[in-house]
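lol ok so funny story. i was supposed to be doing the assay writeup but got distracted and ended up predicting the structure for this chain instead. priorities right. anyway since i did it might as well share w the group, maybe its usefull for someone
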Amino acid sequence: MSSAAPEGGVTVKRLHRIDERSFYVRGRCWGETAPVEALTAVTPEGERVELADQVCQLGEGAFAGRFETAFPTRGSEGWGFEARGGAGSAETPAALAPDPLRTLFADVALDPGGATELCERHLHPAITRLAELRRAGAVVAEVVDFGAAPEAPAVAIVVPLLRRVDLIEHQLAQLSADPELAGCELIYVVADPEQAELAGELASELHALYGLPFRLVSLSGPGDLPLACAQGARLARAPRLLFLGSDVLPDRPGWLAALAAALDADPALAAAAPKLLYADRRPLEATGLACFMVDRAAFEEAGGLAGDYGLGEYEASDLSRRLAAAGRELAYVPEAELLHLEGLGAAPEALAGPYARWLHERRWAGQLAEAAA
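and the output, tada:
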């Protein structure tokens, strides 16, 4: 396409596909002698989409937002963007970039306090849609049992495997020495299909070595932490669920009984969380889904995990607040201690922090204000 005119220009920094008719763009258009009057996206198939009413104007010519095409478009190359004004017109080519979530999470910083409605009108719908597509594309593809689980397990321990499937060796070494595991079903969920073959090889070797029965579940498409937890929970048979990070190790036996005892002691309790420590025994501020025991019936009645925060601690907080809204409580059980290996088992998405905080406040602002008062 033609180069920008001297009087103005248009640049596209990021262009991402959300689905076949929904896209996200961030860029800048400007006019040196006259304001820009129109901004248009041109798809590889030639459809022209006027963006003025679809994207947010962020000041100094910057723009960002989600837009929709009238017809499905599948091409990744051959996009174009045009800016027109009294000073003339400018054009620039563009191509779709991978990993839209990173851009969407990062762009929360462009909308401090929601002043431009970028979060509400654009980022949140786009992230929600990507989460829906991820859930639809990451169903259970294979289930392999290594040994026989108890007929009537008291607790189902669900362990999502994300980046580091090799961590199950350290965890199984600890769990196999704990007599309380004999009454539990242990479910490992491989969230990355590319790791499934390696996980299967390790599982076979480790079962032969330690003898602890467990189930290995593989997903059909890439999943994240809450999705892997949710799929494991659906396959569980026990009346209680324990979500456990693959990078979390018991400090000593007895932790499982302590969590269960807390729930047994008070019918109002629906969930319990332990004291979680780093390897140097510094306490963590929150356990999130790293270790979280919950009554299965209450979990299902509350709607399970939201699945759209991007961070496990906010998923657990959101679930806890929904349980509280239903009259159920969460217990902190400091006598149950576990070690957290610096987040090795979950891909750390630091960029998701601002979005997760925004979404959590959006959903629970009233309850948070009441608690503060």
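The chain is about 30% helix and 30% strand. The two ends are 59 Å apart (CA to CA).
back to the writeup now i swear
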